[in-house]
């Protein structure tokens, strides 16, 4: 009712002013005391100061009891501000601030290999089982056209001696018509049974799910074509069982033991030719090494999802990993802003160099089982390399331990939050990473020139520092991007274990061939990867001209134009830490650095909700204030001290 009366009075007063029937309203008492002048921009009452400081530092209004502590004062005591910045709500505010400028959200980055995803299906009405989702893998397991899964019976019904980890046998069920080149062929298919497994995403060991026996295989390696082999020469295939007519083409039937079960060896690459047991000609049967996600495609029938299906995934499993990557990033922010576990905050500039990395269950699972094997063909590359923290044993990893964090130390060229996956997966190109760094920590933005410079430029070139229209910005951006070169684009993995460059011809091999050779059996680079992976990665991570004879240097992509720009290799060798030094070294002729200047300006805007006025030609310029705050911050390297100084400014304490 009171609100309605005020509204009516306001309407009547306005009407009276128009008609001259009402006297103009008198000024409020506060204004009258100023001789009729507006009291804006005067120092606010202490209660309003407390309210504004609380919102700035904690994101919420003060408690009633907190108002009692400042009654009768003119300014908020340091102890009150210190108490605000010890509270969890302050930590949340600092997370909001850094999220605003750094966008640590890797959601959308594909972290697994689609070729080995698993999904559930109805094995019977009201009964589900799990199997690989990829049709090619199912075809390698069971033959046919890849549409078939296991049948609704335990594997022990088909294979009484079966133990988890054994190669399953499967029962011949029929033939599929397959189009091969210009002909239609009938290819036999079979079905195995299921086994009970506690998958990694199920925390209760009593809750087991049915898994098709091929997908449930746990072996790490198996001898290619280990059955059947020629009894006279174990390195050769026994063609009597699979090529009965001797035409070197695989016969439709693959039941060489005549036991009614289809043998799961023979034509792994589906070229309708018998595979050889000694394909590399070293005199020994080839061994397929199961990385589970990225094997030699000719040797996957004996590889499943590993123990507890650890090496397989489904899309929903990426969600806790994305969330954990973001939290991992923000936990490092906590260390340098609010402090953690009752410890004071560390020097703020070290947020760019502190190589402590926290891992929880989803992240440890990801790096142990998925990251090493996921390729670059549509995925991100996140394998651990030299300089990364070693992982604990399998028994210490629990996918569901989202709140159980363990801290590890990484080595150079890692550089604090700049090489955390939430940053490198959010900004997947070196240019994007450098540009975001430049904005957040150097307060530098690219502004297209009003008139494009066309002198001394090339219209057709891949070198953007020389390309017309582009070179104005890229002459600045490309040197900064080179600092991020040691971190793989489209991922978080380091390139430190790769040879940076392969020249022309060596030992009769091209540069491309030399690149591929570094992968073959070299566990120091990527454990469990084979030749085919080398072909893929060398085509993505490296670039070069392929015009014979002979091809020029085959370089890691960040070094492609290094021959024309010596600074590229220098900055690449310095790594992200070299870029950090540009931001933390004092500006020439100044007593502060770019990091301090950027932090002062951004934090001023975050706290006061407006940008600083930095035009030195205007009477209300705050340029001198910025320089003083930046100098103090450079010396203290303490974000809380900067915030306290901002909140105590008369500019903050006045009415807006």
In brief, what are we looking at here?
The protein has helices at 2-19, 29-32, 46-58, 64-68, 78-84, 88-102, 135-142, 155-158, 239-242, 318-337, 361-370, 421-424, 430-442, 471-483, 511-517, 531-541, 566-584, 594-608, 623-636, 639-647, 650-653, and strands spanning 118-124, 127-132, 170-180, 183-191, 194-197, 209-212, 221-223, 229-230, 233-237, 261-262, 287-289, 356-359, 406-409, 501-502, 505-506, 509-510, 542-543, 554-556.
Q: Can you describe what's shown?
A:
With 656 residues, this protein is an alpha+beta fold. It folds into 3 domains: 1-42, no CATH class; 114-312, no CATH class; 317-579, no CATH class. Helices cover 33% and strands 11% of the residues. The chain has helices at 2-19, 29-32, 46-58, 64-68, 78-84, 88-102, 135-142, 155-158, 239-242, 318-337, 361-370, 421-424, 430-442, 471-483, 511-517, 531-541, 566-584, 594-608, 623-636, 639-647, 650-653; strands at 118-124, 127-132, 170-180, 183-191, 194-197, 209-212, 221-223, 229-230, 233-237, 261-262, 287-289, 356-359, 406-409, 501-502, 505-506, 509-510, 542-543, 554-556. Strands 4-3-10 form a 3-stranded antiparallel sheet, with no helix packed on it. Strands 14-18-17 form a 3-stranded antiparallel sheet. Helix 13 packs across helix 14 (471-483).
């Amino acid at each position: 009712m009171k609100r309605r009366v005020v509204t009516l009075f306001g309407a009547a007063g306005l009407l009276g002013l128009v008609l001259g029937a009402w006297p103009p309203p008198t000024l409020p008492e506060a204004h009258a005391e100023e001789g009729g002048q507006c009291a804006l921009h005067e120092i606010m009452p202490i209660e309003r100061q407390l309210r504004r400081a609380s919102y700035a530092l904690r994101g919420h209004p003060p408690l009633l009891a907190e108002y009692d502590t400042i009654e009768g004062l003119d300014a908020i005591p340091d102890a009150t501000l210190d108490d605000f910045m010890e509270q969890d709500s302050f930590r949340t505010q600092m997370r909001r601030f850094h999220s605003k400028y750094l966008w640590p959200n890797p959601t959308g980055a594909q972290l697994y290999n689609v070729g080995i995803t698993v999904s559930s299906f109805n094995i019977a009405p009201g009964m589900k089982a799990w199997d690989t989702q990829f049709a090619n893998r199912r075809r390698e397991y069971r033959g046919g056209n890849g549409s078939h899964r296991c049948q609704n019976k335990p594997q022990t019904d088909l294979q009484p001696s079966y133990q988890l980890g054994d190669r399953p046998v499967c029962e011949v069920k029929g033939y599929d018509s397959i189009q091969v080149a210009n002909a239609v062929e009938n290819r036999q298919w079979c079905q195995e049974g299921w086994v009970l497994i506690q998958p990694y995403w199920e925390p209760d060991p009593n809750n087991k799910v049915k898994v098709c026996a091929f997908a449930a295989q746990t072996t790490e390696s198996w001898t290619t074509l280990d059955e059947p082999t020629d009894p006279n020469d174990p390195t050769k295939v026994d063609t009597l069982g699979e090529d009965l007519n001797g035409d070197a083409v695989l016969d439709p039937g693959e039941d060489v033991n005549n036991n009614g079960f289809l043998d799961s060896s023979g034509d792994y690459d589906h070229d309708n030719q018998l595979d050889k047991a000694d394909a590399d000609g070293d005199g020994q049967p080839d061994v397929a090494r199961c990385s589970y996600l990225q094997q030699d495609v000719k040797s996957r029938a004996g590889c499943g999802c590993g123990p507890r299906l650890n090496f397989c995934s489904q899309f929903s499993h990426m969600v806790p990993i994305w969330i954990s990557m973001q939290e991992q990033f923000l936990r490092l922010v906590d260390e340098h802003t609010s402090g953690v576990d009752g410890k004071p905050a560390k020097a703020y500039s070290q947020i760019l160099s502190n190589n402590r990395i926290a891992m929880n269950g989803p992240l440890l699972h990801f790096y142990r089982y998925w990251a090493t094997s996921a390729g670059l063909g549509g995925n991100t590359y996140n394998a651990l390399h030299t300089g990364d923290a070693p992982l604990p044993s399998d028994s210490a990893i629990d996918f569901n331990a989202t709140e159980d964090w363990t801290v590890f130390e990484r080595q150079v060229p890692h550089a604090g939050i700049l090489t955390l996956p939430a940053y490198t997966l959010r900004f997947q190109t070196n240019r994007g990473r450098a540009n975001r760094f430049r904005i957040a920590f150097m307060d530098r933005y690219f502004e297209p020139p009003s008139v494009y410079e066309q002198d001394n430029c090339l219209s057709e070139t891949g070198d953007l520092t020389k390309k017309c229209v582009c070179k104005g910005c890229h002459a600045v951006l490309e040197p900064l991007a080179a600092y991020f070169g040691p971190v793989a684009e489209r991922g978080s993995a380091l390139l430190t274990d790769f040879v940076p460059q392969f020249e022309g011809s060596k030992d009769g091999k091209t540069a491309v061939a030399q690149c591929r050779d570094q992968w073959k059996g070299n566990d120091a680079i990527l454990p469990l990867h084979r030749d085919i992976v080398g072909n893929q990665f060398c085509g993505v991570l490296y670039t070069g001209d392929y015009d014979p004879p002979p091809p020029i240097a085959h370089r890691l992509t960040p070094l492609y134009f290094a021959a024309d720009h010596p600074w590229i290799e220098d900055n690449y060798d310095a790594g992200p830490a070299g870029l950090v030094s540009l931001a933390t070294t004092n500006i020439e002729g100044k007593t502060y650095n770019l990091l301090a200047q950027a932090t002062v300006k951004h934090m001023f805007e975050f706290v006061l909700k407006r940008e600083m006025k930095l035009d030195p030609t205007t009477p209300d310029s705050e340029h001198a204030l910025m320089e003083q705050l930046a100098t103090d911050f450079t010396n203290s390297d303490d974000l809380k001290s900067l915030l306290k100084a901002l909140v105590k400014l008369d500019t903050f304490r006045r009415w807006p």
